[in-house]
């Protein structure tokens, strides 16, 4: 996809954080984007903000959807196709984290983590598969360095991201025959409000959301013969411990 103008992207959890950064970077390349959120008002407001910030002819569509529900993801894809007529790029980004010792982790927290971070990726690719076959498009999941590196208090999050990494790599092998590219991006510390804190100057050392956005643009513009299937991304210089 060397020329991205008028391509169409669906980004789950795109109203803030990494998803928003990816949407903005794609729109600057002329890509029309649909961003999802469980909060419809937030999705629509973020879409308006994206159109102002992108300063391009690209359009943004805010869609209410819940990645934990297959029918909700199917409806989101249907809405994107109705609005734009095609789907070329899908970024499965929506995620959350519950952290704490296994002694403290509740069954409800476990289920929400797995449903959102892992099953949500499955529902997203499953819902968009036929559209991506038609466009010979690109599917990207946002995993984490926690998808290969475990840590205390991270049992649910580690399990979900280990799953995303393995799932996406298997899907990559499944879909090559359809000329669909599949990659997973595994960021380390990113400056977002993931843990409930708004980013500030103390986060300057972290990966910024626009950095992940630029990486997505680089991936989808890469020569068709080459596929970076799994990309680990780290801050260049984290603080000394």
From TrEMBL:
Record's protein name: SDR family oxidoreductase
GO terms classed as biological process: monocarboxylic acid metabolic process
Organism annotation: Gelidibacter salicanalis
Annotated Ketoreductase domain residues: 7-191
NCBIfam families linked: PRK07326.1 (NF005594)
Database matches in InterPro entries: KR_dom, NAD(P)-bd_dom_sf, Sc_DH/Rdtase_CS, SDR, SDR_fam
Signal peptide: none
Family per similarity comment: Belongs to the short-chain dehydrogenases/reductases (SDR) family.
Tree of life domain: Bacteria
Pfam families hit by this protein: adh_short
């Amino acid at each position: 996809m060397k020329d991205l103008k008028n391509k169409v992207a669906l980004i789950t959890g795109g109203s803030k954080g990494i998803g928003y950064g990816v949407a903005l970077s794609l729109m600057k390349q002329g890509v029309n984007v649909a961003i999802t959120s469980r909060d419809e008002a937030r999705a629509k407001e973020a879409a308006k903000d994206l159109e102002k910030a992108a300063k391009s002819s690209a359009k943004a569509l805010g869609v209410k959807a819940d990645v934990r529900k297959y029918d909700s993801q199917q409806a989101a894809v249907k809405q994107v196709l109705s609005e734009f007529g095609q789907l070329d790029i899908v970024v499965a980004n929506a995620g959350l984290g519950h952290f704490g010792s296994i002694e403290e982790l509740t069954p409800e927290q476990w289920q929400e983590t797995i449903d959102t971070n892992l099953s949500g990726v499955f529902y997203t690719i499953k819902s968009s598969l036929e559209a991506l076959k038609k466009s010979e498009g690109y599917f990207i999941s946002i995993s984490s360095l926690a998808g290969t590196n475990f840590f205390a208090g991270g049992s649910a999050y580690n399990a979900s991201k280990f799953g995303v990494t393995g799932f996406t790599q298997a899907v990559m092998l499944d879909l090559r025959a359809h000329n669909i590219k599949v990659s997973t991006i595994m960021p380390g510390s990113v400056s977002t409000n993931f843990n409930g804190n708004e980013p500030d100057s103390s986060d300057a050392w972290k990966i910024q959301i626009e950095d992940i956005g630029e990486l997505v643009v680089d991936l989808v513009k890469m020569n068709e013969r080459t596929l970076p299937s799994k990309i680990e991304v780290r801050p260049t210089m984290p603080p000394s411990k």
